[in-house]
Structure formats: structure tokens, C-alpha cells
């Protein structure tokens, strides 16, 4: 399976890349600056996400979008998402997007998402809005195979790899401690699982994990 990973030098992208390589997938890192890439075994395409084309991406079975922006930016997630939609619509390539949690319903009543419930932290609000709009754009497509993967409310870069995670749909999940929590390493596991399985085509999915092994 040929997998292109956009943002492979970022915190999440690096872990996704490492996990995909461990499983023997044919991985290409798609990055702006190849000198930042730590994994020497990875093939590289050095190109800005905003310049990617159908020719660049349709060679892959799956493209993972782990693109990240500095805090406080909304539009880059929207614009980057639209570039990928345009490039991959009408192709057989699946797009797996590492998205945000703000669009998740906070409980099974499905009456409020993170924005309307006021649970999105101020520091993440602008990015979360951009990610939510990206989801809306994906949902409006008719000829694109996509999956939008939402983390839990607390997406922990310092958390452990436990392998103890659960998958859900568009409703926030909670772990055995009653927390909406997900570690970066467990998100990487879940994303590569989805890359391999394709179980959530044209769906939003979410992931929750335990804090301890």
C-alpha cells in the first residue's frame, strides 16, 4: 500500500509516519522542508501543501493530511483542505484527515457540538473553526473517498502509547476515567489502522484512549 503523509515532520505526522513504516507500508513524506525529516528510510516529496496537484497525489492509495498551523490561524486549514479536495476528487485515492474535536457532538443527544457547548479552548478556537469548515467541505463532496479523524477534547502530545483506544463516530467519547482524552501516539495507531482498513469511508470518526498502559 502506497501512503503519502502530508506534514510528516510535525508532531502528529512524525508519529503517523513511524507507525506506517513499522507496518511495512510504502511511505512517502510530503513536506515543505525535507531537512527536518528525521526518518531516513522515508521517500520524500518536498512541496508546499498549497501547491499539490492530482499528479502529485493520485499515485498513492491513501493520502494522510497531518498538516498543522500555528495557533490563531483559521484560513490555512480551509484553503489546504480545498487544495486536496480538488486534487483528489474523481480519483481512487483515499484521503484521511487529522482534524479537530470542535465539530464533535458533546453527548449522544447530538444537540450541541464543542463550539455551541463552549468546550473548545480559546487558544485552539481559530484552528478548530478552520478544521470544522474543512469537514463541511468534505461532506459536500460526491466523488471523493475521505475520512475525517477527530481527536478527543484533550489531545495530549506528551501522552503514552497504550494501544488502549476506542473508535466512535461524530459523538465525543470518554475513557474509563470519564475523560475525553487521546494521546498523540494512540492517534497515530488509530490513523494507520484506518489507512489500512478504510472502514470509515466518507465519515467522521473519533478516537479516545486511556492515560495508562
UniProtKB/TrEMBL annotation:
Positions of the NAD(P)-binding domain: 7-170
GO MF entries: oxidoreductase activity, acting on the CH-NH group of donors, NAD or NADP as acceptor
InterPro entries, A to Z: NAD(P)-bd_dom, NAD(P)-bd_dom_sf, Polyketide_Oxido-like
Name of one Pfam family that matches: NAD_binding_10
Gene3D superfamilies: NAD(P)-binding Rossmann-like Domain (3.40.50.720)
PANTHER family in UniProt: FLAVIN REDUCTASE (NADPH) (PTHR43355)
Protein name: NAD(P)H-binding protein
Organism taxonomic ancestry: Bacteria, Bacillati, Bacillota, Bacilli, Bacillales
